[in-house]
């Protein structure tokens, strides 16, 4: 098993608040690693720290044998890490087409094929190709956000709460797309929806109060009711 | 896209009408006024690249205007006023703007927007002081007059040159903003962090926007002093930047055509209010009426004239799309 990302005891402050106080986890290549935890546990900050948006003050982040903590965000992204933020991160005043095009790193045949594939996966995006991103529904925005991360051949995708605020039927479609993405790339997924997390994830880490407190294979968590109740509030 | 085509078509039609105008309607004062509008439209469009397309607020944009103005004035005064010298002057002005914008960009664009705005204000003031103190070259605030090339002494020729340059600037900047680089700039305006997350270095793109805006403003500065055949330190004053800012805001930021309309409104209003002053002394304080105009525009057209019209057009389309979606859902 090759590890693509190794996060070692990172500590991150946002202003005066000590948000991450020792988060560690490993991401095996080709798998989906899920970060779980209650609201405010530090899951989003962990992804933002990896991307350099909230750089850690301590600890190490190693991506494909290269230390990336302290590097500027654009360089981290340039190494092949795609990021789908919690707020979807689309550009509201640009059209769907422009949102896709702005993310394209090249015009290669491979990229064009990926665009075709992504439009098959999310036909709504094709339908609203010339519509401004800000005028899309929540589900369509999420699809656009995932599509944008998918069109470049990233080695690792960080996806933050893709099901947040979406109707159940849309969540199903997002899940299908993530299942499809899983075949071609490694994913770190932050997700509150346990059904989605457990059906996509291969392994999990629980973050509580800014620290990783538990980890294991996803099926172990499915069977451990006490753990789910203690850290995730699921009976 | 459709709106873009309509805008382009409107610009071409307007261009043709304005091109024919001096040959069918002889009015020296109108030609002079329209020439001023074309020049300030170029300047305001350059500011739109910063404010409207990249979200950069600069209070020192006049310095690039000033570089063009002084380069043209100094060269044409000290050498023979030929087209060759004018082109050389323009080239020098553009080179100075290029170098200064790159240096300023890399040193200051990392700052948060309000700090950047204040810093550019400081730098423009620095060049204003430099122009005032370097009297051997600039003659300080008194300024100096100069001759322009023979070909451009004819008001109609100069009018046509300014019109062609304004239309050229519009179509070139339009192409620039519709290019992949332009899209990144617009994305930076919306959210710089998101752009960085996609692998783009926002600083690099912001510096390019500053360079494009700076060089365009230099051309406007050069044309401005050629229209007056005089240059003094007022070209570096904050008023010049504020004029561009207001023309852009009134017309509509991030539209390119908005600043042209803004320049037209402000220059016409200025001319009209000044002419009223001879009959009604209250209009001698025309700046007060300008203030009222700005307040009214901000209240009733918060996105500027073009921006507000575009929003209304989009709203109508949005309602239609939602109606279609609803019908589809009912049918499905």
From TrEMBL, chain A:
Pfam families: ABC_tran
Entries under SUPFAM superfamilies matching the protein: P-loop containing nucleoside triphosphate hydrolases
Matches recorded under Gene3D superfamilies: P-loop containing nucleotide triphosphate hydrolases
GO molecular function: ATP binding
Record keywords: Amino-acid transport, ATP-binding, Nucleotide-binding, Transport
CDD domains cross-referenced by the UniProt entry: ABC_TM1139_LivF_branched
Segments forming domain ABC transporter: 5-234
Family from the record: Belongs to the ABC transporter superfamily.
Protein name, per record: ABC transporter ATP-binding protein
Protein's organism: Pallidibacillus pasinlerensis
UniProtKB/TrEMBL annotation, chain B:
Membrane-traversing stretches: 6-25, 30-50, 56-76, 83-107, 113-131, 156-173, 203-225, 245-266, 286-309
Keyword Amino-acid biosynthesis: no
Compartment(s): Cell membrane
InterPro entries: ABC_transp_permease, LivM-like
CDD domains per UniProt: TM_PBP1_LivM_like (cd06581)
Membrane topology listed for this record: Multi-pass membrane protein
Superkingdom, natural source: Bacteria
Swiss-Prot/TrEMBL keywords: Cell membrane, Membrane, Transmembrane, Transmembrane helix
The UniProt record lists the keyword Transmembrane: yes
Protein name, UniProt field: Branched-chain amino acid ABC transporter permease
Organism (species): Pallidibacillus pasinlerensis
